[in-house]
Amino acid sequence: MSLSESDVKKVAKLARIAISDDDVPHLMNELNGILGWIEQLQEVDVEGVEAMTSSVDVALPMREDVLAEGYTGGGQPEKIVANAPKTEDHFFVVPKVVE
Amino acid sequence: MTDLTTKTIAELREGLGKREFSAVEVTDAYLQRAESAAALNAYVRLTPEKAKAQAELSDQRIADAEARPLEGIPLGIKDLFCTEGIETNAASHILDGFVPPYESTVSANLLADGAVFLGKLNLDEFAMGSSNETSYYGPVINPWRREGEDTKLTPGGSSGGSSAAVAARLCAGATATDTGGSIRQPASLTGTVGIKPTYGRCSRWGIVAFASSLDQAGPIARDVRDAAILLTSMAGHDPKDSTSIDRPVPDYEKALEGGVKGLKIGIPKEYRLDGMNAEIDAIWQKGADLLKAQGAEIVEVSLPLTKYALPVYYIVAPAEASSNLARYDGVKYGLRVHDDNIDEMYSKTRAAGFGKEVQRRLMIGTYVLSAGYYDAYYLRAQRVRKKIADEMAKVFEEVDLLLTPSSPSAAFGLGEKSSDPLEMYLNDVFTVTANLAGVPGISVPAGLDAQGLPLGLQLIAPAFGEETMLRGAAALEEAIGFDAQPTEWWK
Question: What family is reported (chain A) (predicted)?
Answer without folding.
Answer: Belongs to the GatC family.
